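Methods: holo model generation. Sequences were used as deposited, without trimming of termini or removal of tags, and paired with ligand SMILES retrieved from the corresponding compound records. Each pair was processed once, and we did not select among multiple samples. The sequence and zinc ion SMILES for this entry were:
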Amino acid sequence: MDTLAHAAIGGLFFSRSGVRAVKHPTGKPFWRDWTFWAAAGFGSMPDLASFGVHFCGMLFSGELREMLRRFLAGDVMAAAPPVEMLPHYVILNYQLTHSLVIALAAGVLVRLFWKPGFLPYLAWPVHILCDIPVHGRSYFATPVFWPLSDWSFDGWSFGKNLWIVAGYWGVILAVLAWRIKKRKSGVART
Ligand SMILES: [Zn+2]
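and the model returned the structure below.
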């Protein structure tokens, strides 16, 4: 799943001002709700901590511009460099951030030491669950049980099946539209 979709799912489902506010209004717009930004951050962190760091490095070497040019020309897989060309830390960080074992252990710490952060934190394990079916073993399958096991599910790559991207974005935008409509009817009632 693309990183922006993970951030959107985080902000929409795991913040106080997302869908939760329909039943429990916060009285604040989403941009003043810290849990919205924290949830978008937890949702996108697994990809930013691995590919994001690498793409930042490419920005300085000029390689990123070439990759974007190919991507915009219709070569979507240009945004997915071959595994053997990636630095080892990208793979290690990907394993660390895409393992449910690690994420759940971190969740226990968040619950114990930072209770208000627990709702936004949930966007992290949900990122992993969303990635499992949309990554194939040929490219960054989700190492869900790492480091206990290297097993991964051989799913359908979202980069090669753009109908998957259209499908999940359709659901995200439908929920967003519903949330905005609910806010408007709430305002009309008061
Ligand atoms: Zn991911």
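The first helix runs from residue 3 to 13.
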